[in-house]
Amino acid sequence: MTPASKDTIQGVGLGFLAGYVDTLGFVALFGLFTAHVTGNFVLIGAGLSQMSRAAGAGSLLIKFLAFPAFISGVVVARLFITAMGRRQRPVLQLAMLLQLTFLVGFMLLGLLASPIGAVQTPLAISAGMLGAIAMGVHSANARLLMPQLAPTSLMTGNVTQIVIDAVDIARGAADAATRARCGKFIWPVLAFGIGAIMAAYAYLLMGFWALLLPILILAGLALMENRVLTDAG
Q1: What residue spans of 114-207 are helical by DSSP H?
Q2: Is the peptide bond before 115 cis (omega within 30 degrees of 0)?
Q3: 97 Cβ partners below 8 Å, 6+ apart?
Q4: How many CB atoms lie within 10 A of CB 227?
Q5: Using an 8 Å Cβ cutoff, are 184 and 4 in contact?
Q6: N or C: which end of the chain has fewer CB within 10 A?
């Protein structure tokens, strides 16, 4: 496997996973963003505005808690990656398995909390927090261990870069690096969008069992990394 093909597979797989998990959390857990946690601030502001008009605050607690949960995921990933690096362990593979562990916990707590009604139960909130922690690990892993990839969880910057590069290509001002960058950025965006659409329907059909798909994707990426390390050794 060439480095370029490995990067493409990782970018598509992780982009799909991020869009899928973020949308599933939003649909299942009171409009919670697990990956795009800053989006929760908008929803919190909207909820507080409704409360000021005596229209009800909505489900805000889980959104307030998502930000520190996401940060804790980043902290855990940073410390874990540092510790594994010092021990000369296969860092990327183990970091993926760390995220997988939190995703499994998200699924299991979601199943225990089901059916999820209008009230935020402790189990439902805990499920959301594990989802946010998992995506905090996801973001830290990508930033620390896969800087060559386009971002796989925050798509606004990706779309902006794609449009800039597409304009340069259309006006004949793009060099080879610009064309390559456009190709690198577009696949995670498409995968994220497909993951988001699939997650909404999958949750309606399967509930939290739908998280098996991103769990299997992450397990497959970890196995791919193990094979690459084995072949290199």
Answers
A1: 122-145, 156-170, 176-206
A2: yes
A3: 222
A4: 12
A5: no
A6: C
CA distance 164 to 161: 5
Q: Using alpha carbons, select from 197, 149, 150 the residue that is nearest to residue 19.
A: 197
pLDDT tens digits along 16-44: 999 999 999 999 998 888 887 766 666 66
Overall size of the chain counted in residues:
233
* Cβ burial 184-219 (10 Å sphere, 16+ → b, else e): bbbbbbebbeebbebbbebbeeebbebbebbbebbe
Determine the 3-state secondary structure of 145 from DSSP: helix
Which CB contacts under 8 angstroms, 24+ apart, belong to 3-12? 6/224, 6/228, 7/146, 7/148, 7/149, 7/184, 8/187, 9/221, 9/224, 10/146, 10/149, 10/221, 11/149, 11/150, 11/152, 11/184, 11/187, 11/188, 11/191, 12/187, 12/188, 12/191
Residues in contact with 76: Cβ distance below 8 Å, sequence separation at least 6, in sequence order: 98, 133, 136, 137
Model pLDDT for residues 46-92, shown as the tens digit of each residue: 666 565 444 444 467 888 898 899 999 999 999 999 999 999 999 99
